[in-house]
Amino acid sequence: MADIQGGGEGWEREPWEMGTCKGGTVKPVLPVMEWYLKEEGEEGGEEDRMRVKFYYHLLVYPDISSQLHKSLTKWAADPHKPTISGPYCFQDELRAFSFDLVFDSAVKNDMIR
To answer: pTM score, two decimals?
Structure first.
């Protein structure tokens, strides 16, 4: 499997398995951006002509004995923190995590106006 992430449906599937080193060492991936130009007559007003999606897995790999590693392990296991996933294998230890950043202009977001 290639060391890239795909865009669109299923983008979150990585070639590395969480919680095991069977798939080898996790590698950082580049962000994926998708642009969709809306056709005339599609739903949306004049200000809504283009849809933008952005996906990024920001990889971190703290020392396994650090407090950050312990905190990330707890956060990744918490179902209310869906933007953190891991642990992934890094240098033969389950110490890597990713912050999964997703933006979709079609989804209302109060932080971006």
So the answer is: 0.66
Residue written as token pair 């033969």 = 92
The domain spans of the chain are 1-113
- How far is it, in rounded angstroms, from Cα 45 to Cα 26? 42
The closest of 70, 112, 63, 61 to 89, measured between CA atoms, is 61
Q: What is the separation, in whole angstroms, between the first and last Cα of the chain?
A: 38
Report how far residue 110's alpha carbon sits from residue 105's, in angstroms, rounded to the nearest whole number: 11
pLDDT, tens digit (0-9, with 9 covering 90-100), for 5-59: 444 455 455 556 778 888 788 888 788 888 888 766 556 555 557 788 888 888 9
CB count in 10 Å sphere of residue 37 = 8
| Distance from C-alpha of 48 to C-alpha of 40, rounded to nearest angstrom | 11
